[in-house]
Amino acid sequence: MTKNSSKDSAAVITLSTLREMKQRGEKFTCLTAYDASFASIMEDAGIEVLLVGDSLGMVIQGHDTTLPVTLNDMIYHTQCVNRGRRRALIMSDMPFMSDALPAQAFDNAARLIKEGGAHIVKIEGGEVMAETIRLLSERGIPVCGHLGLLPQSIHKTGGYRVQGRDDQGADKILADAKTLAEAGADLLLLECVPVGLAEKIVHAVKVPVIGIGAGSSCDAQVLVLYDMLGITPGKRPRFTKDFLKDSSGVHDAIVAYINAVKRGEFPAPEHTFS
Ligand code: KIV
What we know:
globular, 14% strand, 40% helix, binds 3-methyl-2-oxobutanoic acid, disordered N terminus
């Protein structure tokens, strides 16, 4: 029996599963994964979404930003994660400038799905990406729109800062969320926005909203694996928590994270922005 044939197909997580969870008010969980071993541990713990994030450029490759990550890097790590995956949905980031133009984004997203085994691709950016998201969506490629803090635009925005704190910025992110959902985005991800704005967006769109530094009203949470295991060097970002500190090992830390999200205990107010 091959590893894949041992999958319990009834339990495989699809976008419908996530939409139904949102409708039931049941939180789902996501962590970044970059290799088969951690993907397998996350599966055992019960994670619903494995994000092959371009944060791998920082935590795996040691760069200062996510910008040097290539499409081939993303395909390689998605393949690795896929080998450890049994039932979770695999979401892979479109790396910097791989989605700058709609046709280019279409070809590159197709490679992430065909060669990497991703189930959905994540694209950073607001209204400017709506045409691309519509093109991909209409041709059967699921997309998650990433709003708020956009790490790929770091040189434009000038730093890793909370977004949407002023009325104008908040209105723009809310409008972008509605536009991307209308263009066909299947999921949205909000990074580092005030809790009040995240709550408005969660209620304004039908698609599930995943938050990181966006408060507990989001339909799901994501963290960078290395942050929640306390491995990332330097000052821990406010919105993360070291779950390994009070656990007996990696598996238990991930279970603790999942339980804390499902019970609405993480993120707590000290992990959020106003
Ligand atoms: O690349 C990544 O890890 C991400 C998360 C920060 C959401 O996009």
